Amino acid sequence: MSELPPCPKCKCEYTYQSGETIVCPECFFEWRLEENAETEETAANTKILDSNGNELKEGDTVIIIKDLPVKGSSKAVKAGTKVKNIKLVDGDHNISAKVDGFGAMGLKSEFVRKA
Q: Which own/partner contact pairs does 46-55 have at CB distance under 8 Å and 24+ positions apart?
């Protein structure tokens, strides 16, 4: 029995093969085995950089460099606010973190610098 790779989207290890595609039973993501090698290679080459060009990693502490308006709030996140223990995610807002006074939110790496 050949071992199938985990899901590239949710990292579930219980993937199964259906024809030429591999399917994840948890998030229902489907991909071809050839595509899996390409996505792992590009993911390894993708680095998230802060406004100064420093590479960010999971658990880093960053400082917001610009006042950022928050949807649904009359207050803005002020420049100089320190955000601890960031998580890196895919998408436009590539940092997920808890900001004091605002709670969990997504941030763009171009508006932060590594502390």
A: 48/88, 48/94, 48/95, 48/109, 49/109, 50/109, 50/110, 50/112, 50/113, 50/114, 51/109, 51/110, 51/111, 51/112, 51/113, 52/113, 52/114, 54/113, 54/114
Reported confidence tier of residue 10, pLDDT bands at 50, 70, 90 = confident
Neighbours of 88 (CB within 10 A): 17
The pTM for the full model equals: 0.61
Q: Where are the beta strands (DSSP E) in the chain?
A: 16-18, 21-23, 30-32, 62-64, 68-69, 76-77, 82-83, 87-88, 95-99, 103-107, 112-114
